[in-house]
Amino acid sequence: MRVLGIETSCDETAVAIYDSDRGLLAHQLYSQVALHAEFGGVVPELAARDHVRKLLPLLSSVLGAAGLSKSQLDAVAYTSGPGLIGALLVGAAVARSFAFAQGLPALGVHHLEGHLLAPMLEADPPTYPFVALLVSGGHTLLAEIRGLGEYIILGSTLDDAAGEAFDKTAKVLGLNYPGGPALAKLAEGGRPDRFPFPRPMLDRPGLDFSFSGLKTAVVVTARNVELDAPTKADLACSFQEAVVDTLAAKCLRALEQTGATTLVVAGGVGANRRLRERLLQMGKQRGMQVRFPRMEFCTDNAAMIAYAGCQRLLAGEHDSLAIKATARWPMNSLRSPISMMTTST
Ligand code: KG4
Ligand code: ZN
User: Fold this and answer.
1) pLDDT tens, residue by residue, 38-56
2) Is 3.40.50.11890 the CATH number for 2-116+298-344?
3) In 32-69, which positions are buried (b, 16+ CB within 10 angstroms) versus exposed (e)?
4) Is 163 near ligand 1, meaning CB less than 6 Å away?
């Protein structure tokens, strides 16, 4: 089955084609980072309008790169939530209309399911069950992945997402949007132990996260020191170390709690070099496998949406002809396609 994937949930327009026999045939992405940079963050209305401009040309380009015509596709998968509603609606409307015109089925995919399954696109995919850490700009969660649609949420953030904490802290340090990668770069020249920032929620049981107190600690500290270049680097590095320590400790707890021996890291913060280094080291020490999707599949992309949609379509799932877009869509409402069939018959 050859599935066209469309992702427009936030500030990236992305299109991909996944073939269940041959794997990923093509994937392309247009980032709106430059468009939003002058506003210091994503402007939802501008994001939606830019998806309108970029999506159709990108779709033609991906078909060209895969050497396929529209009639050689079997289905369409699109991100139907969660995300910015205007942005989602563009992808959903294009996906649904394209599928209707071609006489194909179309399926709305949960953006986070896409992230969680992204490692399955690699040549040597992890085997179920595994623990997944999803750390993006909008979400931070730990889940046990037992199979397609079988996700046990072990913990999530009570306030800011990890990426959001990176972005907000970067702003305090005067760094430009998107702050996460800029802060990580600044941290490379800093000292991790100069500022002993809190490791939130490590002193109590459970797998939930909280990052807003850590961000506030940086704000308070920054007010009381002279913000010269080395101090900024030390603040960035000490903050990053606190986030990485916290994430690593919770991952270890999740692995011990579930008995799983594989940890998969997904989402934009999964691109953080220090986090990768720390988790790989932890895996080595504990005899556990730690896997990361390639960098381009850590951040938003359409390959993960095409893949997730393809698996659900192959399992017999289908949607009505409605254009589906849901800004808020709790992950624990997802079901495996098999259980959906048994409960509906
Ligand atoms: O998954 P993603 O591309 O978008 C969604 O939020 O869905 O994640 C983007 C987030 C942003 O907050 C960005 O600052 C953060 O990932 N990020 C990083 C790094 N690269 C991206 N945070 C820390 N270090 C990085 N190297
Ligand atoms: Zn994402």
Assistant:
1) 998 899 999 999 999 999 9
2) no
3) beeebeeeeebbbebbbebbbebbeebbeebbeebebe
4) yes
